[in-house]
Specification:
mainly alpha; two-stranded antiparallel ribbon; 5 helices; 52% helix; 6% strand
């Protein structure tokens, strides 16, 4: 039977920008998954610059918002909840739907 003691569980984490495709985390620490605010800000600024728009434009234009959400999902270690908070409190379910829809369109 698997142990329910999380101190001894192992977790695999995938992120497309990591040097190897899978990184094994032997002792799970929730703090390691918090968004890096500097990284998120850089990604947002790059997105805004690349699309020649403002953050207000991203918030008001659903297509831009969805592209930006997908970009943050793919380029940062933000949780769906953290991404949602950046976009005026969208819930995790909404962010998940945006990502799923955006991935199906590509």
């Amino acid at each position: 039977f698997p142990s329910h003691d999380t101190r001894n569980n192992s977790y695999c984490v995938y992120h497309q920008l990591m040097s190897s495709s899978l990184n094994l985390i032997t002792f799970f620490d929730e703090d390691c998954f918090e968004c890096d605010v500097k990284d998120v800000n850089e990604q947002l600024q790059d997105f805004i610059k690349d699309h020649e728009c403002s953050f207000d434009d991203v918030l008001s234009n659903k297509s831009l918002r969805d592209q930006c959400v997908l970009n943050l999902y793919q380029t940062t270690l933000c949780s769906l909840k953290e991404i949602g908070e950046l976009f005026l409190g969208l819930d995790q379910s909404t962010i998940s739907k945006i990502i799923k829809k955006s991935l199906q369109e590509t």
